[in-house]
Specification:
single chain, 266 residues, alpha+beta, four-stranded antiparallel β-sheet, 11 helices, globular
Length: 266
Protein backbone atom coordinates (compact mmCIF):
# COMPACT_ATOMS: atom_id res chain seq x y z
CA UNK A 1 0.00 0.00 0.00
CA UNK A 2 1.36 3.42 -0.92
CA UNK A 3 -0.11 6.44 0.82
CA UNK A 4 0.31 9.79 -0.90
CA UNK A 5 0.34 12.44 1.80
CA UNK A 6 2.52 14.83 3.79
CA UNK A 7 5.11 13.05 5.86
CA UNK A 8 3.27 10.94 8.41
CA UNK A 9 5.87 11.32 11.13
CA UNK A 10 7.24 14.84 11.01
CA UNK A 11 10.01 14.37 13.60
CA UNK A 12 12.42 11.98 11.96
CA UNK A 13 9.99 9.10 11.37
CA UNK A 14 9.04 6.66 14.13
CA UNK A 15 11.24 8.23 16.78
CA UNK A 16 8.89 6.74 19.32
CA UNK A 17 10.97 6.01 22.39
CA UNK A 18 14.48 5.81 21.01
CA UNK A 19 16.90 8.67 21.43
CA UNK A 20 18.36 11.05 18.85
CA UNK A 21 21.50 12.86 19.95
CA UNK A 22 22.91 15.44 20.40
CA UNK A 23 20.26 17.61 22.03
CA UNK A 24 20.31 20.77 24.09
CA UNK A 25 19.06 19.69 27.49
CA UNK A 26 19.48 23.12 29.03
CA UNK A 27 17.34 25.18 26.67
CA UNK A 28 14.80 27.55 28.15
CA UNK A 29 11.28 26.38 28.86
CA UNK A 30 8.45 27.45 26.57
CA UNK A 31 5.50 28.49 28.76
CA UNK A 32 2.02 27.39 27.70
CA UNK A 33 3.61 25.34 24.92
CA UNK A 34 0.45 23.52 23.86
CA UNK A 35 -1.69 26.65 23.84
CA UNK A 36 0.90 28.68 21.91
CA UNK A 37 1.61 25.82 19.48
CA UNK A 38 -1.97 24.53 19.13
CA UNK A 39 -2.54 25.53 15.51
CA UNK A 40 0.80 24.14 14.35
CA UNK A 41 0.35 20.89 16.26
CA UNK A 42 -3.16 20.45 14.91
CA UNK A 43 -1.97 21.22 11.39
CA UNK A 44 0.71 18.54 11.61
CA UNK A 45 -1.75 16.02 12.97
CA UNK A 46 -4.23 16.75 10.19
CA UNK A 47 -1.52 15.62 7.79
CA UNK A 48 -1.12 12.44 9.82
CA UNK A 49 -4.86 11.86 9.78
CA UNK A 50 -4.97 12.05 5.99
CA UNK A 51 -2.67 9.02 6.10
CA UNK A 52 -5.00 7.44 8.67
CA UNK A 53 -7.99 8.03 6.39
CA UNK A 54 -6.28 6.52 3.36
CA UNK A 55 -5.05 3.53 5.39
CA UNK A 56 -8.50 2.78 6.78
CA UNK A 57 -10.20 3.46 3.46
CA UNK A 58 -8.42 0.42 2.03
CA UNK A 59 -10.06 -1.84 4.65
CA UNK A 60 -13.27 -0.13 5.74
CA UNK A 61 -16.11 1.91 4.21
CA UNK A 62 -14.98 5.34 3.07
CA UNK A 63 -17.47 7.06 5.37
CA UNK A 64 -16.12 5.23 8.40
CA UNK A 65 -12.51 6.01 7.47
CA UNK A 66 -13.35 9.70 7.08
CA UNK A 67 -15.26 9.78 10.37
CA UNK A 68 -12.39 8.19 12.31
CA UNK A 69 -9.92 10.64 10.82
CA UNK A 70 -12.10 13.62 11.73
CA UNK A 71 -12.83 12.26 15.21
CA UNK A 72 -9.12 11.70 15.83
CA UNK A 73 -8.40 15.37 15.08
CA UNK A 74 -11.10 16.42 17.55
CA UNK A 75 -9.74 14.02 20.17
CA UNK A 76 -6.21 15.33 19.77
CA UNK A 77 -7.42 18.91 20.09
CA UNK A 78 -9.29 18.01 23.28
CA UNK A 79 -6.30 16.35 24.94
CA UNK A 80 -3.65 18.91 23.94
CA UNK A 81 -3.96 21.26 26.89
CA UNK A 82 -3.88 18.36 29.36
CA UNK A 83 -0.60 16.93 28.09
CA UNK A 84 2.40 17.06 30.41
CA UNK A 85 4.64 20.13 30.42
CA UNK A 86 8.11 19.16 29.17
CA UNK A 87 9.31 22.67 28.44
CA UNK A 88 8.24 22.57 24.80
CA UNK A 89 10.50 22.03 21.80
CA UNK A 90 13.59 22.79 23.87
CA UNK A 91 13.14 19.28 25.30
CA UNK A 92 14.25 16.40 23.02
CA UNK A 93 11.35 14.29 24.30
CA UNK A 94 8.60 16.73 23.30
CA UNK A 95 8.31 15.16 19.84
CA UNK A 96 7.80 11.69 21.34
CA UNK A 97 5.09 12.88 23.71
CA UNK A 98 3.37 14.67 20.83
CA UNK A 99 3.46 11.48 18.76
CA UNK A 100 2.04 9.52 21.70
CA UNK A 101 -0.82 12.02 21.59
CA UNK A 102 -1.30 11.15 17.93
CA UNK A 103 -1.70 7.47 18.69
CA UNK A 104 -3.95 8.16 21.68
CA UNK A 105 -6.25 10.31 19.55
CA UNK A 106 -6.32 7.75 16.73
CA UNK A 107 -7.08 4.98 19.20
CA UNK A 108 -9.88 7.00 20.83
CA UNK A 109 -11.53 7.48 17.45
CA UNK A 110 -11.08 3.85 16.40
CA UNK A 111 -12.24 2.50 19.76
CA UNK A 112 -15.47 4.48 19.43
CA UNK A 113 -16.09 2.51 16.21
CA UNK A 114 -15.54 -0.84 17.93
CA UNK A 115 -11.86 -1.33 17.07
CA UNK A 116 -9.20 -2.57 19.49
CA UNK A 117 -5.89 -1.22 20.71
CA UNK A 118 -4.16 -3.74 18.46
CA UNK A 119 -5.92 -2.28 15.43
CA UNK A 120 -4.75 1.25 16.26
CA UNK A 121 -1.28 -0.04 17.05
CA UNK A 122 -1.00 -1.84 13.73
CA UNK A 123 -2.18 1.22 11.82
CA UNK A 124 0.44 3.38 13.53
CA UNK A 125 3.15 0.77 12.95
CA UNK A 126 2.31 0.43 9.27
CA UNK A 127 2.21 4.18 8.68
CA UNK A 128 5.60 4.52 10.32
CA UNK A 129 6.93 1.70 8.15
CA UNK A 130 5.58 3.50 5.09
CA UNK A 131 7.41 6.64 6.15
CA UNK A 132 10.67 4.74 6.60
CA UNK A 133 10.26 3.12 3.19
CA UNK A 134 9.93 6.56 1.60
CA UNK A 135 13.13 7.86 3.21
CA UNK A 136 16.34 7.49 1.12
CA UNK A 137 18.49 4.62 2.35
CA UNK A 138 21.60 6.83 2.37
CA UNK A 139 19.87 9.29 4.67
CA UNK A 140 18.88 6.53 7.07
CA UNK A 141 22.39 5.06 7.05
CA UNK A 142 23.95 8.45 7.74
CA UNK A 143 21.57 9.00 10.62
CA UNK A 144 22.50 5.62 12.07
CA UNK A 145 26.23 6.24 11.73
CA UNK A 146 25.90 9.61 13.45
CA UNK A 147 24.13 7.91 16.33
CA UNK A 148 27.41 6.19 17.29
CA UNK A 149 29.64 9.25 16.93
CA UNK A 150 31.67 10.50 19.92
CA UNK A 151 29.50 13.62 20.00
CA UNK A 152 26.34 11.52 20.16
CA UNK A 153 27.70 9.34 22.96
CA UNK A 154 28.75 12.38 24.96
CA UNK A 155 25.34 13.93 24.47
CA UNK A 156 23.65 10.71 25.57
CA UNK A 157 25.68 10.67 28.78
CA UNK A 158 24.92 14.35 29.45
CA UNK A 159 21.23 13.91 28.74
CA UNK A 160 20.95 10.85 30.99
CA UNK A 161 22.59 12.72 33.87
CA UNK A 162 20.23 15.65 33.32
CA UNK A 163 17.10 13.48 33.46
CA UNK A 164 17.85 12.60 37.08
CA UNK A 165 17.17 16.20 38.01
CA UNK A 166 13.52 15.37 37.24
CA UNK A 167 12.76 18.94 36.19
CA UNK A 168 9.51 17.85 34.53
CA UNK A 169 7.39 15.16 36.28
CA UNK A 170 6.00 13.92 32.96
CA UNK A 171 9.45 13.44 31.42
CA UNK A 172 11.73 10.44 30.98
CA UNK A 173 14.51 9.40 33.40
CA UNK A 174 17.42 7.31 32.12
CA UNK A 175 20.83 5.85 32.92
CA UNK A 176 23.34 5.54 30.04
CA UNK A 177 25.74 2.66 29.40
CA UNK A 178 28.75 2.23 27.14
CA UNK A 179 30.59 -0.96 26.21
CA UNK A 180 33.62 -2.31 24.33
CA UNK A 181 31.21 -3.53 21.65
CA UNK A 182 31.15 -7.22 22.51
CA UNK A 183 27.44 -7.23 23.33
CA UNK A 184 26.50 -3.62 22.63
CA UNK A 185 28.14 -0.32 21.81
CA UNK A 186 25.87 1.99 23.79
CA UNK A 187 22.54 1.91 25.52
CA UNK A 188 20.39 3.19 28.31
CA UNK A 189 17.84 2.02 30.83
CA UNK A 190 14.68 4.08 30.87
CA UNK A 191 13.70 4.17 34.54
CA UNK A 192 10.69 6.42 33.92
CA UNK A 193 8.88 6.74 30.59
CA UNK A 194 6.96 9.84 29.59
CA UNK A 195 4.95 7.87 27.04
CA UNK A 196 3.85 5.33 29.65
CA UNK A 197 2.91 8.17 32.02
CA UNK A 198 0.88 9.86 29.29
CA UNK A 199 -1.07 6.76 28.26
CA UNK A 200 -1.77 5.96 31.91
CA UNK A 201 -3.15 9.47 32.44
CA UNK A 202 -5.36 8.96 29.38
CA UNK A 203 -6.46 5.53 30.72
CA UNK A 204 -5.07 3.95 27.56
CA UNK A 205 -2.41 1.65 28.97
CA UNK A 206 -3.57 -1.05 26.55
CA UNK A 207 -2.28 0.82 23.49
CA UNK A 208 1.01 2.01 25.03
CA UNK A 209 3.09 -1.11 24.16
CA UNK A 210 2.23 -0.72 20.47
CA UNK A 211 3.74 2.76 20.41
CA UNK A 212 7.10 1.42 21.56
CA UNK A 213 7.25 -1.18 18.77
CA UNK A 214 8.19 1.50 16.26
CA UNK A 215 11.72 1.68 17.67
CA UNK A 216 12.58 -1.63 16.00
CA UNK A 217 11.89 -0.88 12.31
CA UNK A 218 13.62 2.46 12.69
CA UNK A 219 16.71 0.82 14.17
CA UNK A 220 16.66 -1.82 11.44
CA UNK A 221 16.63 0.80 8.69
CA UNK A 222 19.32 2.94 10.33
CA UNK A 223 21.60 0.01 11.17
CA UNK A 224 21.76 0.76 14.89
CA UNK A 225 21.13 -2.83 16.03
CA UNK A 226 18.58 -2.28 18.80
CA UNK A 227 17.84 -5.09 21.23
CA UNK A 228 15.36 -4.63 24.08
CA UNK A 229 14.02 -7.26 26.46
CA UNK A 230 11.59 -5.19 28.52
CA UNK A 231 9.54 -1.99 28.55
CA UNK A 232 7.66 -0.06 31.20
CA UNK A 233 4.65 -0.01 28.87
CA UNK A 234 4.50 -3.81 29.12
CA UNK A 235 4.58 -3.67 32.92
CA UNK A 236 8.34 -4.08 33.39
CA UNK A 237 10.39 -1.99 35.82
CA UNK A 238 12.39 -0.35 33.03
CA UNK A 239 13.08 -0.24 29.29
CA UNK A 240 16.51 -1.66 28.46
CA UNK A 241 17.71 -0.21 25.15
CA UNK A 242 20.96 -1.74 23.83
CA UNK A 243 22.46 -0.72 20.48
CA UNK A 244 25.23 -2.37 18.46
CA UNK A 245 26.23 -0.84 15.13
CA UNK A 246 25.38 -3.11 12.20
CA UNK A 247 23.70 -5.82 14.28
CA UNK A 248 20.61 -7.37 12.72
CA UNK A 249 17.39 -6.24 14.38
CA UNK A 250 15.26 -9.34 14.81
CA UNK A 251 12.51 -7.82 16.94
CA UNK A 252 9.37 -6.17 15.65
CA UNK A 253 5.61 -6.59 15.48
CA UNK A 254 5.73 -10.32 14.85
CA UNK A 255 8.06 -11.13 17.76
CA UNK A 256 6.81 -8.69 20.38
CA UNK A 257 3.01 -8.54 20.23
CA UNK A 258 2.68 -12.07 21.59
CA UNK A 259 4.50 -10.89 24.73
CA UNK A 260 2.13 -8.03 25.48
CA UNK A 261 0.08 -8.07 28.70
CA UNK A 262 -3.34 -9.63 28.27
CA UNK A 263 -5.68 -6.67 28.71
CA UNK A 264 -9.33 -6.21 27.73
CA UNK A 265 -9.59 -4.51 24.36
CA UNK A 266 -5.95 -5.15 23.47
Amino acid sequence: MTISRRKIIQAGCVAACGCVFPWNTRAASQPNYYAVSRERLLGEFKGVCEGVRQYLNAKHPASQAAAISADAISAFDSMLLSMADLGGDSNRNQQYLTQAGWLAAIYAAMKAKGMAAKDAGRLFYDLNAEELASTPAAQLAARGAAFFSPESKASLAEWARWTHERLYPGDWVATAFFSDGSDFDMGYDMLECGVAKFFKAQKMEDVAPYFCLNDFPRSRCEGTGLYRSMTIAQGDVKCDFRYKQGREVVQGWETEVARFPDKPGA
